[in-house]
């Protein structure tokens, strides 16, 4: 009698497992877990930021000028500009990094990727990588900056974008705050369940295309590279930054702020590391 029901039950459980496996695949969950762009109808900048900074709205053309990435340019004491590629959410929660750049004496451009904030289009890994390059090109072509006047800075999810731009475009220096080696590792460290999925699930379609979001490409960097990480980061383990530091062919600097969680790295610490780049004379990828 038991055998009569055993086969249907096993078949049902197998079907449920297979359904859950494909439903929870990284390529399917990416739009909900990775591209948290927090679209808005307008940006509401905090009054504390506006009191001494004068943001200039910018529209960065992408996709043959059919779409635009929105953001802000903040003029500082120096013409040298920090290009910030931020983490999840729109640019508003990441304005502390603008404060860091301004405190270091630099100008700053922060932008939202397509599908984030006020920017046009749909969010995807491919778009994020393209948008990072477009933002660099905007500084070079529209504002007339030379490569030695551009510092690339990425935070969290955006570190992969900045690393990608640094591979394709020359710059003065590269600063990564809370970087990961690969997106797959970052995901699996946080959610071990996703280790059961093969690599192609992280590198297919529009969500994880090749080139994918990763920071391993910085190992060939020929510019000053600084990595900053919180010692108690439970979102992106600090071991990612340690491995990246070991991989750097030209050295580099690793700064770990002990006892600090993800997204809580000191703005003053970041400002100090940015100031150090003012002495950097070597640039070019």
Highest CATH level, the class: Alpha Beta
Q: CA-to-CA gap between the ends?
A: 72 Å
Q: If strands are numbered along the chain, what order do they take across the biggest sheet?
A: 1-2-4-3-5-6-7-8
CA radius of gyration is 21 Å
- Secondary-structure arrangement, i.e. CATH architecture: 3-Layer(aba) Sandwich
Largest sheet: 8 strands, mixed
- Number of extended strands: 8
Report the β-strand fraction as a percent range.
Answer: 15-25%
Percent of residues in helices: 25-40%
**CATH homologous superfamily - what is it?**
Alpha/Beta hydrolase fold, catalytic domain
Averaged pLDDT: 85
> Shape from CA axes?
globular
Count of discrete structural domains: 1
The helix/strand series, from N terminus to C terminus, equals HHHEEEHEHEHEHEHEH
CATH topology annotation: Rossmann fold
Low-confidence stretches: 204-209
Secondary structure tally, helices: 9
Strand pairing plus helix content: what structural class? Answer: alpha/beta
How would you sum up this structure, described in words?
The chain has helices spanning about 1-25, 25-35, 45-50, 95-105, 125-140, 160-170, 185-190, 240-245, 265-275; strands spanning about 55-60, 65-75, 80-85, 105-110, 150-155, 175, 225-230, 255. With about 280 residues, the protein is an alpha/beta fold. It has a single domain (about 1-280), classed as Alpha/Beta hydrolase fold, catalytic domain (Rossmann fold, 3-Layer(aba) Sandwich). Helix 6 (about 160-170) links the parallel strand 5 (about 150-155) and strand 6. It is globular, with a radius of gyration of 21 Å. It starts with a helix and ends in a 9-residue tail after the last helix. Mean pLDDT is about 85; it is low at about 205-210.
């Amino acid at each position: 009698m038991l055998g009569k029901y055993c086969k249907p039950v096993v078949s049902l459980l197998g079907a449920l497992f297979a359904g859950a496996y494909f439903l929870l695949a990284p390529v399917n969950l990416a739009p909900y877990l990775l591209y948290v762009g927090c679209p808005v109808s307008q940006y509401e900048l905090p009054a504390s930021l506006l009191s001494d900074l004068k943001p200039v709205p910018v529209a960065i053309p992408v996709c043959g000028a059919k779409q635009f990435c929105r953001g802000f340019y903040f003029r500082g004491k120096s013409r040298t500009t920090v290009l910030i590629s931020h983490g999840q959410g729109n640019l508003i929660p990441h304005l502390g990094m603008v404060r860091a750049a301004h405190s270091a004496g630099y100008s700053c451009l922060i932008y939202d990727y397509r599908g984030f904030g006020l920017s046009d289009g749909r969010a995807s890994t491919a778009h994020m990588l393209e948008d990072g390059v477009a933002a660099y090109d905007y500084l070079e072509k529209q504002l007339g900056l030379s490569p030695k006047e551009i510092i690339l800075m990425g935070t969290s999810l955006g570190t992969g974008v900045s690393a990608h731009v640094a591979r394709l475009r020359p710059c003065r220096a590269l600063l990564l705050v809370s970087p990961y080696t690969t997106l797959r590792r970052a995901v699996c460290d946080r959610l071990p369940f996703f280790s059961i999925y093969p690599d192609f699930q992280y590198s297919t379609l529009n969500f994880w295309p090749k080139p994918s979001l990763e920071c391993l490409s910085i190992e060939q960097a020929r510019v000053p590279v600084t990595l900053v990480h919180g010692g108690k980061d439970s979102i992106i383990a600090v071991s990612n930054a340690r491995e990246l530091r070991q991989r750097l062919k030209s050295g580099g600097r690793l700064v770990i702020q002990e006892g600090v969680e993800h997204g809580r790295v000191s703005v003053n610490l970041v400002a100090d590391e940015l100031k150090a780049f003012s002495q950097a004379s070597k640039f070019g990828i």
